[in-house]
């Protein structure tokens, strides 16, 4: 399955503000991976403010690492109007699981996020992003006028390409969203834009009547993006092609809590974490967590098993971790001696630290202050994964 096609069918373009927030809130509590703390926010908590209506999933995690023979390049654009203390325009560029470049309208400067990005032409990126900033600002104005709107509105765009290193097959992807709704999608078969909502038909017709724009995207997806991707993979090979195996632990907050199989510190993000009972895959009373980013560029994933001590004493339960690119299978057998627990007092302290850091990361008032209150008041603690070794 091509990851770009999967993305286009299953993900609505979410407000990029939240993407950046979730990506940056991963904090180290200490140098040991077990102490990593991740705050995971679902945008349904803030839908009243930002028009987000679906469960949030960080797009960068749905990429090449699940399809190890492919490399993928993405760009995420967000243009907004009347959002106080936040840039009107932002860009983040990704290669595979790695952020490579950042740009926003406040600084109007391209910021390389990797050392190997410094080998690229910064003036080219600045010129591209400056031009995009002006065109996106105009598009937001057109949309607001067309729908007779005022106030906060958000235009988002994700586009990219993928290269299968085994077959040489390439693919492209482009999708436009407005206020959290999918609007337009680029069709690689017809080489034209198609509307995903009735309200977007006017924009589809406008974009498809611009033959220079269509010619640009045809060339971009078939050649420009692929050439750029190949160069980025060469320049960043030591980062993009590295393999870091997971550290696997069994964790439990209290004797009555579910047992968590926690794999962390791995790269790339392709990993399967599951439970077995007496040698057979076990799905009953098992809850799977999402793959989440650590702040050092690695990832973590947890799978939770609800089981009594009597059950695991009478049966053999074990957590199995399969990791992309390594044939070795990581196994942790569930025994009392393998379980690591955390003190409630320490966990509470870490929760406070995370909330304080969240406020610092956001650093704005008004709309986002209400977001913080909303998050805290709506089951924040259940969305925190605080992993602490006693």
From TrEMBL:
Q: Note the SUPFAM superfamilies from the entry.
A: Immunoglobulin, MHC antigen-recognition domain
Which residues belong to any copy of the Ig-like domain?
Answer: 246-322
Per the record, the GO terms for biological process are: immune response
- InterPro entries hit by this protein: Ig-like_dom (IPR007110), Ig-like_dom_sf (IPR036179), Ig-like_fold (IPR013783), Ig_C1-set (IPR003597), MHC_class-I_related (IPR050208), MHC_I-like_Ag-recog (IPR011161), MHC_I-like_Ag-recog_sf (IPR037055), MHC_I/II-like_Ag-recog (IPR011162)
Pfam families in the record, alphabetically? C1-set, MHC_I
- Could you list the residue ranges that cross the membrane? 12-29, 346-368
Q: Which CDD domains match?
A: IgC1_MHC_I_alpha3
What keywords sit in the KW lines? Glycoprotein, Membrane, Transmembrane, Transmembrane helix
- Gene Ontology CC annotations of this record: external side of plasma membrane; extracellular space
Tell me the protein family, please. Answer: Belongs to the MHC class I family.
Q: What protein is this chain from?
A: Ig-like domain-containing protein
């Amino acid at each position: 399955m091509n990851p770009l096609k999967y993305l286009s069918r299953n993900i609505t373009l979410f407000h990029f503000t939240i993407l950046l927030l979730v990506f940056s809130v991963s904090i180290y509590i200490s140098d040991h991976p077990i102490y990593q703390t991740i705050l995971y926010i679902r945008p349904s908590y803030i839908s009243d403010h930002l028009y987000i209506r679906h469960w949030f999933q960080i797009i960068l995690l749905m990429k090449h690492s699940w399809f190890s023979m492919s490399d993928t390049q993405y760009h995420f654009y967000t243009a907004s109007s009347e959002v106080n203390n936040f840039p009107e325009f932002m860009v983040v560029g990704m290669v595979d699981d790695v952020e490579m470049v950042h740009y926003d309208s406040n600084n109007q400067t391209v910021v390389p996020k990797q050392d190997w990005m410094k080998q690229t032409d910064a003036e080219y990126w600045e010129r591209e992003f400056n031009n995009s900033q002006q065109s996106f600002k105009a598009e937001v104005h057109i949309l607001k006028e067309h729908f007779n709107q005022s106030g906060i509105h958000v235009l988002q765009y994700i586009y990219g390409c993928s290269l299968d290193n085994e077959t040489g097959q390439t693919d492209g992807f482009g999708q436009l969203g407005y206020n959290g709704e999918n609007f337009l999608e680029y069709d690689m078969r017809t080489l034209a834009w198609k509307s995903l909502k009735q309200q977007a038909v006017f924009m589809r017709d406008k974009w498809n009547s611009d033959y220079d724009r269509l010619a640009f995207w045809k060339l971009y997806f078939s050649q420009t993006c692929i050439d750029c991707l190949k160069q980025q993979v060469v320049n960043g090979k030591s980062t993009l092609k590295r393999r870091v195996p997971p550290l696997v632990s069994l964790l439990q907050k209290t004797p009555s809590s579910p047992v968590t199989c926690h794999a962390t510190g791995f790269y790339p993000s392709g990993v399967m974490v599951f439970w077995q009972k007496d040698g057979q895959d076990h799905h009953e009373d098992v809850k799977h967590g999402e793959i989440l980013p650590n702040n050092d560029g690695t990832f973590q994933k947890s799978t939770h098993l609800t089981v009594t001590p009597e059950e695991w004493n009478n049966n053999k339960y074990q957590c199995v971790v399969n990791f992309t690119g390594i044939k070795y299978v990581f196994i942790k057998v569930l025994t009392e001696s393998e379980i690591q627990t955390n003190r409630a007092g320490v966990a509470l302290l870490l929760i406070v630290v995370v909330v304080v850091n969240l406020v610092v990361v956001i650093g704005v008032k008004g709309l986002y202050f209400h977001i913080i209150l909303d998050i805290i008041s709506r089951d924040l603690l259940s969305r925190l994964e605080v992993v602490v070794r006693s």
